[in-house]
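Each record in this resource describes a single protein on a pair of labelled lines. An example record follows, reproduced without changes.
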Amino acid sequence: MKNTILLTFIFLLFTSISCEKADGIASELQGNAIIGTWNRIDEIPSGGIREDYRYFDVETLHTFELDGTYTYKVNYYGFKDENLNELMGQSENKGTFEVYNDSVFMRVCENTSWEKGFKPKPETIQLNGEAYGNRFIIKKETLTLYYISYPADAPVQTQMSFKRVE
């Protein structure tokens, strides 16, 4: 009986010590660490030739909720030389997510989008809910997603980082 209790204790001790950690966050807590809103702002050129380039801001927000739902919103703001702070368009995906170890799997259920010049009335389409995954790391209030992008010629390993919104 003593041996059984001792072996059980050793097993429990071993499993609690061997939990993987990423930046001080135990792997079983990664799912809770991703909860919140994460933001990224990029300046994107637009135009056919270099002399015609005009720049506008793109704000990307990932929001992960405790109930397993998420939104991925992209806001497009006015060109630097005119309407700097005007929201010119928006795209928002809604769906669900699950975290497994160091990966987050998102399932997109609907998309709503509009664009001031071409499609001013928001349009919502239902999507098939196909899941896609990204490996992720959270370090010093920065969420980095690692994924594969598919440009015209070949897949490329890509990463994007987002700051936690207060």
